[in-house]
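Before relying on records like the one below, remember that each one covers exactly one chain. Contacts with other chains, cofactors or solvent are not represented anywhere in the record.
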Amino acid sequence: MEAIPISPESYNLGFIGAGKMAESIARGVVKSGVLPPQRISTAVHSNPNRRIAFESFGVGVRSNNSAVVEASDVVIFSVKPQVVKDVVLQLKPMLSEKKLLVSVAAGVKLKDLQEWAGHSRFIRVMPNTPSAIGEGATVMSLGGAATEEDGELISKLFGSVGKVWRADEKSFDGITGLSGSGPAYIFLAIEALADGGVAAGVPRELALGLASQTVLGAASMLTKSGKHPGQLKDDVASPGGTTIAGVHELEKGGLRGILMNAVVAAAKRSRELS
C-alpha cells in the first residue's frame, strides 16, 4: 500500500509519553513556528506537573494514548525503551499506515518497531539532551515504508531543536556512544578545566564560567570556520608557548585515546542493551 502523503501545512502531531524529551521537542516545534500548539497533543496519566508543563505553552493534554493517536497524523513514541513494545502493541489496532510513526527510544531497532506496529512507515530518531535548549544533535534512520517526504517532515520537526543528520541504522550504537552520551563527557571536561583554573589560582565561579564559555566558543568556531580541528589547534599553539605546553601534557595523559575509548565503551553497552 502506498503511504498517504502528510501535508506539511496541516498535520497533527501526537506524543506518546509526556516526559522531558517530548516537552523539549514540542517546545522547539512551537517556538520555531513549525506547528501551532493546538495541533500538538499528548496524554498525561499520573503526574500533574507534566500536564502543567505542556499546557503552559498551549499543547492539548488528552485523557489517554488512544485519544492522542486518533487525533494525530504523526505519532512520536517518547517512552522508556523497556516499555515501548507494550505501548506500541497496545495501540497497534489504531496505528494504520496512514500514520507516520517515530521512535526516540534508545536502542530499540526499526525491525522490532515495524513488527510491533504491523507496518514499516516508521522513523527511528536519536536525539540528545541539549535538544532541551535548542542545541540538540539528532540522527534519524528511515524504515521501509517511510517516504522521502516523511524524512523531510521529521527533519524539520527535530531541526527546531538543533541539527539533524541521517545515517544508516547500523551506526546507531556508535551514535549513542558519541552524541547520546557525549554531553556527559563534555560536562566532565568542563568541570576538570574549571578545577585546573582553581588550582592555578582562578576564583571558582570565574573558572567555571571561563571553562564553559571556552568549550562553547571552540565548538562554535569549529562548526562556523569549516576548518579541521587540528588546524585550529595549530593556530593557537605558538612555538615554545603556553598552549603547546598544555597540549603536551594532554598527549602524555592520552586524552585522545581516553575519549575514543569512552565512545567505544558506550557504543558497546548500547549494543548489549539493544
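The longest strand covers residues 136-142.
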